[in-house]
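Ticket #4471: structure output looks truncated?

Reporter: J.K.
Steps to reproduce: submitted the chain below (112 residues) through the standard prediction queue, then opened the result file.
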Amino acid sequence: MAPKKCAKEWCKEIIPSESSNKHCNACRERDRDNQRARRARLKEQAKILEERKAAKKRARDSDHDSEERPAQRTRQDSQKTREDNEEREEQDDDDDESIFGESDNTVSKQYY
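Returned output as attached by the reporter:
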């Protein structure tokens, strides 16, 4: 078998043909170190993110006490709607009209 080249484009290292690896030992070691550094960096970022979340929760809990909260406002809308409905009932003079807008006096008596 012919000797193989390292699979990295920029690496020209020759690998023995009996090796089952696609990369030379130098590239494999470099990749291993980079992967360890990446895992450590991600672990540190996750730790910082978790600390920030915990700090926000603590700050929010300590800043807001039930005594400092504003009193709940009453609903003005429902009271206003109720008053409007009462006014409409007082103004409604068309209670004697049928469904079709005709009073009993205008409907012909032949259909009864």
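Triage note (M.O.): checked the attachment and the full token line is present. Strands lie at 4-5, 14-15.
Status: closed, working as intended.
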